[in-house]
Design goal:
The complex is a heterotrimer of chains A (423), B (56) and C (355). Chain A is 40% helix and 13% strand. Chain A is an alpha/beta fold and 423 residues long. The radius of gyration of chain A is 21 Å and the shape is globular. With 56 residues, chain B is an alpha+beta fold. Chain B is built from 2 helices and 2 strands; from the N terminus they run H-E-E-H. Chain B has a two-stranded antiparallel ribbon with strand order 1-2. The mean pLDDT of chain B is 88. Chain C has an 8-stranded antiparallel beta barrel with strand order 1-2-3-4-5-6-7-8. The longest helix of chain C has 29 residues. Chain C is elongated, with a radius of gyration of 26 Å. In chain C, a hairpin with a 4-residue loop joins strand 7 and strand 8. With 355 residues, chain C is α+β, with helices and mostly antiparallel strands. Chain C starts with 9 loop residues before the first helix and ends with a strand. In chain C, helix 1 runs antiparallel to helix 2 and helix 7 runs antiparallel to helix 8. The chains are: A alpha/beta (423), B alpha+beta (56), C alpha+beta (355). At the B-C interface, helix 1 and helix 2 of B face helix 2 of C.
Chain lengths: 423, 56, 355
């Protein structure tokens, strides 16, 4: 029962489709042991687990802060997954719901949260699976809520605002939700993968967790690999894995690569040669100006055009601005237009200079980090692909996915949250 | 909250300038003593009270 | 002996009242224009930066409060209309044209609220300040209505043109602001546009059936005893037959003043003409007569549109002679009086001829 090596989270999936039932889940992983709050938080701390939603925050710090405050409102499973190229959370929620629920329940107990709220996007296939899984559970304090799917709505403060009955838009932090969230009380918001790891750490302990990975980056991670690879999908890999092995796990490249997008659209481009020598490790990736983020890696083949691809993505991200802050709303639109101009080869040194100026002016001037993420992506685009594109390349799209657009200038299905209650 | 009215930049150009869309870029940090009066006035003039002078 | 207190004739205060009212209207128009157009970023740039327009808006508002306060004080001092200082801030309780005067008081109250909430904006928070500031859109039409309803010049071409000009400019500015506002859309915008177009229309209709229609003074609530002097100034006093003779009956009051005695005689005319005569004399008593140190005589004749005013020219026994004049008339008056000091009553006869 105690997995040696991989898979860990993805154990038992096999070739079956559909969700693993509670009975099946207990067959694979064994029962969830009774564990005291202190013991759980200690285990998580010793394991070195960090949040898998992209912020990479040490999980035990959050647990500790919420437990210490003593007035936790709830634990929220943030299944928003608004990164268009990420599929790991959808996989966990739709096919391994009990693993996530185990982690959620044991984490909720450890911080004294009376309620678990699972938040997913409207129309997600996870709704049915999660609903069924919750029904299988004897615990009656789990709620399932569906909400809007805009890019910025998955951000922690946006989730709290939405669950509090307001618009699903980010607000200024601090205070962060784990300090002040639902109903003004500390709210623990965690990515489903983080909770899945907690479910296994509760069973097998921190030492087991550290059997994989490196000392600085222990454990395993789910990575959504897509783009110019033979078998795009969600893979579980140990930290410290080399990029070549990562790509091999997904069946290898379908053509020579020119770049990798690390961390999804909130991440950065890396040139293929530069990335080849890197491993899945925070410091190494950080040194090259990137990070794993929410576990998204997109491979861009030579046949595609990085500038045009990025121009498409940045235009989408600009449209996804919540519009609360002038510099983000106006700046990102201008930046996207300038990038498109450069990609089409119509720009000059002036355009590139203005683009760089706007990037440095927009950074840090929003209520949330959306504009910062876009600026980071743009700057890495210019670094990796240069500033001279060709209009003809526009047709050579690599088909990187975009999320749903806003309708009528408003958040898609804003306020039309489909609130399905669990048992 | 900031709506880009730009009164702050008019009153305190030494510390605040407007970006290409009319929103203020503020030099963070300590306000030099000779500009504190103007800074106070700029914060009071903001139509949406978005500018705050921290006088601690 | 010091002279009786020299008083300004009522006409000076009356001019000040009207003048300050006009100035207030112009100020309010400028203020509302600055408030409406300022945030629209059409003005501005290097020569007129936003904060300068904002400061001007604030300064003019404070000035307007002062001017209106002056307007209230001066109209009370005028003494013509029976109003007190309280009627400047408490609406609709005055004895003189309560509704139309009250609108002015209401507008003034709103202005005070605007100014006070603006001074305390940081403490109050943006939401309260904004809510009160929206009332500004109500106070301006109220002020205009007040001017049209109480103003003695409301039927004059120059006053109407001025008011019309102000109304048109403000309505145009508000319309522009509504059309340009991104926040105001759909039913909100329709409502705002309707309000902005209906207000000038309403004011025009009101003007037509109010001040410009006959008998407005009485319909507006002017007390009956003042109505006599409010006949159109253009009418000539051709109905008075000179010389005239009438009977007098009234009261006498003697008060001891700082410098001597003050005699106040109020008389009603009856006979061929009707009206009232008031004689005030200050002086030092000497036996049964009075050594005059100052005087004032007011004569209201129904046949004469304007009040006649003047002073005593002679005092012989029980006979008082006086000279009074008005817009187009000067009269020499001779009043033979029989005074009963105990009862404080007076009877007598009056003779008036051209002076």
């Amino acid at each position: 029962m105690r997995p040696a090596g991989l898979p860990r989270l993805l154990a038992g999936l096999g070739d079956r489709s559909g969700a693993i039932t509670w009975a099946g889940h207990q067959r694979i992983h064994g029962p969830l042991p009774a564990i005291s709050a202190e013991e759980l938080i200690e285990s998580v701390a010793l394991s070195g687990l960090r949040g898998r939603g992209g912020a990479d925050f040490p999980t035990s710090l959050k647990l500790h802060a919420v437990a210490a405050a003593g007035r936790a409102a709830a634990l929220v499973v943030n299944g928003s997954e608004t990164e268009p190229a990420s599929a790991k959370d959808a996989l966990l929620l739709a096919r391994l719901p009990h693993l996530v629920l185990d982690g959620a329940l044991v984490a909720a107990s450890s911080v004294g949260a009376p309620q678990v709220i699972v938040k997913v996007g409207n129309g997600s296939p996870a709704i049915a699976a999660m609903g069924a899984a919750i029904a299988e559970r004897p615990e009656g304090r789990i709620a399932l809520v569906a909400g809007p799917t805009g890019y910025v709505t998955g951000e922690e403060s946006a989730v709290v605002n939405f669950l509090s009955g307001g618009p699903p838009l980010p607000t200024f932090v601090p205070p962060r939700p784990y300090q002040r969230g639902l109903r003004g009380r500390p709210t623990l918001i965690q990515n489903p993968e983080t909770l899945a790891h907690i479910a296994l750490i509760a069973r097998h302990g921190p030492n087991w967790y550290r059997e994989l990975g490196t000392w600085a980056d222990p454990g395993s991670a789910l990575v959504t690999i897509s783009g110019a690879v033979r078998n795009p999908g969600v893979y579980e890999l140990a930290f410290g894995t080399r990029m070549a092995d990562l790509l091999a796990a997904a069946g290898g490249e379908t053509e020579p690569l020119q770049a990798l997008l690390m961390g999804g659209y909130f991440g950065t481009w890396m040139g293929a040669e530069a990335a080849a020598g890197l491993r899945l490790a925070r410091e190494e990736l950080g040194g090259a100006g990137g990070s794993l983020g929410a576990g998204v890696v997109i491979a861009l083949g030579r046949s595609a055009c990085g500038l045009h691809e990025s121009a498409r993505i940045v235009a989408y991200l600009a449209r996804q601005s919540s519009g609360q802050c002038g510099p983000c709303l106006h700046g990102l639109a201008a930046i996207a237009a300038a990038l498109r101009t450069l990609a089409d080869g119509r720009g000059d040194a002036e355009t590139a200079w203005t683009l760089r100026r706007w990037c440095s002016e927009v950074r840090g001037r929003g209520a949330c980090h959306h504009p910062d993420g876009v600026v980071r992506l743009v700057e890495s685009t210019l670094r990796v692909f240069g500033t001279h594109g060709h209009a003809e390349c526009r047709a050579r799209t690599a088909g990187l996915p975009l999320g749903p657009e806003k309708t009528d200038g408003a958040e898609p299905q804003a306020g039309a949250g489909d609130r399905t209650r669990g048992v | 909250m900031c709506d880009g009215h730009g009164l702050c930049a008019g009153l305190l150009p030494e510390l605040i300038r407007l970006d290409d869309w009319g929103y203020p870029i503020i030099e963070v940090g300590e306000v030099p003593p000779e500009l504190v009066g103007l800074a106070r006035r700029a914060a009071d003039a903001c139509p949406t009270l978005a500018l705050l002078l921290d006088e601690r | 002996m010091t002279a009786a207190a020299v008083t300004l004739g009522p006409t000076a205060y009356w001019y000040l009242t009207r003048g300050s009212g006009i100035v207030a209207l112009l100020l309010l128009t400028a203020i509302i224009l600055l408030g409406v157009l300022g945030p629209m970023r059409i003005a501005g740039g290097e020569r007129w930066p936003r904060f300068a327009l904002d400061t001007l808006h604030r300064d003019l508002s404070l000035l307007a409060v002062v001017v209106i306060a002056l307007h209230v004080v001066v109209s009370v001092l005028d003494g013509f209309a029976p109003i007190g200082l309280i009627d400047g801030v408490v609406p609709f309780v005055s004895a003189y044209r309560p509704l139309w005067l009250g609108l002015g008081a209401l507008a003034f109250d709103l202005m005070l609220a605007l100014v006070i909430t603006s001074l305390l904006r940081r403490r109050l928070g943006l939401r309260w300040w904004r809510a009160v500031h929206w009332l500004a859109y109500a106070s301006w039409p109220l002020a205009v209505l007040h001017g049209l309803g109480t103003g003695s010049d409301s039927s004059q071409v120059w006053a109407l043109s001025l008011t019309l000009g102000c109304v048109v400019i403000v309505a145009a500015a508000v319309l522009a602001r509504i059309m340009r506002s991104p926040a105001l859309r759909g039913s909100g915008r329709s409502a705002a546009l309707a309000a902005t177009l209906l207000t000038p229309a309403g004011l025009a209709v009101f003007t037509a059936v109010g001040p410009l229609a006959p008998d407005w003074a009485r319909r507006a609530g002017t007390p009956a005893r003042l109505l006599a002097s409010l006949a159109p100034a253009a009418a000539r006093d051709t109905r008075l037959k000179l010389p005239f003779a009438d009977q007098l009956a009234g009261t006498i009051e003697q008060t001891a003043g700082a410098s001597g005695t003050i005699l106040d005689i109020e008389l009603r005319l009856s006979g061929a003409d009707s009206g009232s005569l008031r004689i005030r004399m200050a002086g030092a008593p000497s036996g049964s007569t009075v050594a005059l140190t100052g005087s004032q005589v007011d004569l209201l004749l129904n046949a004469v549109p304007s009040a006649l005013q003047g002073e005593v020219t002679g005092l012989k026994g029980d006979t008082v002679t006086a000279r009074v004049s008005g817009a187009q008339t000067t009269l020499e008056l001779t009043a033979d009086l029989q005074i009963d000091p105990q009862a404080g009553t007076v009877t007598g006869s009056l003779l008036g001829k051209a002076g």
